[in-house]
Amino acid sequence: MDYRFTDKSVDSTVKKEQKDRRMVTLEDVAKRAGVSRMTVSAVLNRNLTHVRVSRATQQRVLQAATELNYFPNAIARSLRKKRTGIIGFYGGLGYLNASLPFYAEIIGGLQRGCDLHRLDLLVHGTFPRRSVKDIYAELVDGRLDGLVVHTSADDPLVTLLAKSHLPVVAIADAIESLPSVVVDDFIGGKLQAEHLAGRGHSQVLYRASDRPLISACLRYDGFMECAQNYRMKVTTWRGLENIANDAKAVDAFCEVLKSCQATAVVCWNDMSALDTLMICRDRGMNVPGDVAVMGYDGIRTMGSLFHRLTTIKAPWFDVASRAIALLVEQIESKDENLQKEVVLPVELVCGDTT
């Protein structure tokens, strides 16, 4: 048998609290001020062009709104303005780890760009076993005014986004079908080769990315073109960014390093360079005495534990912030001839690893 005891005083208190917690509407404000809903809407939205409201009535409406703690309904406002004030960020290269220095710079730049334009940022995750159609449906469901993406050109989602109504800007890796904000990766690769050649290195091991990223390919092409001019012998090694804790992978890497007699390891990004520094430390190789190490990204925390890494500084914070500005231009303008690609310069940062 089920016994239920009801305290009417408690029940009425709960109902009153629930009533008090409900969202205050324009009708509530109108009732308190003793005016019509249309008058309240005109006053609170500062749309007094077609509605004549006396100053006394305006003050009464504003006072009623304050007393009731009224705030505009964001959904209703977005429907009226056809804007939500929200920009999305989607990373299609796997788990988006915001603790990694690269993504920390990117997200920081996106937030800065959004702040400058009074927008909110919504970060979309990538979840296992989700279909491309499911992800696409979520991105274009009306919550976003625009989207910034960091993904590869062969991501099937790119084709769908390029044909959608949603304004989209790619960052870090240029995508032909989308406006993009990138750094000058080709020049960055050349700067790496010029620096090592200037230090007298003629045999180099290049740690290339194992992913088909446009940025990585441009860095490699720039390096190889310049290295050829200096008659530098380059051995290419492709693998994961982090192998320092994998003994077999480290053995294979060190064997290649030894067999090609390289005096320098140049890496496609700073994560690979930091990994190389850890391998050298663990295997008793002096840097830069036995082997020089060079990276690419220039993020301050990279390699700072036991070395000041020689690297190419890429302004990722500025890239992300500029992407928001380009996206806002795209949202607010109907001009189809907006700038398709923004390329920011890179610079050599000399540390103690070369």
Care to describe what's here?
This is Transcriptional regulator, LacI family. InterPro entries: HTH_LacI (IPR000843), LacI/GalR-like_sensor (IPR046335), Lambda_DNA-bd_dom_sf (IPR010982), Peripla_BP_I (IPR028082). Keywords: DNA-binding, Transcription, Transcription regulation. It holds the Pfam family LacI. This protein is α/β, with parallel strands linked by helices and 354 residues long. It has 3 domains: 23-72, lambda repressor-like DNA-binding domains (434 Repressor (Amino-terminal Domain)), CATH 1.10.260.40; 86-183 and 318-344, Rossmann fold (3-Layer(aba) Sandwich); 185-313, Rossmann fold. The protein has helices at residues 8-21, 26-33, 37-44, 55-67, 74-81, 101-116, 132-139, 156-162, 185-198, 214-229, 247-259, 270-282, 316-332, and strands at 86-91, 120-124, 146-150, 168-171, 180-183, 203-208, 233-238, 264-267, 292-294, 311-313, 341-344, 347-349. It has a 6-stranded parallel beta sheet with strand order 2-1-3-4-5-11. Strands 7-6-8-9 form a 4-stranded parallel beta sheet, with helices on both faces. It has a two-stranded antiparallel sheet with strand order 10-12. Strand 1 (86-91), helix 6 and strand 2 form a beta-alpha-beta unit. The radius of gyration is 28 Å and the shape is elongated. The relative contact order is 0.11. Residues 1-5 have low confidence and may be disordered.
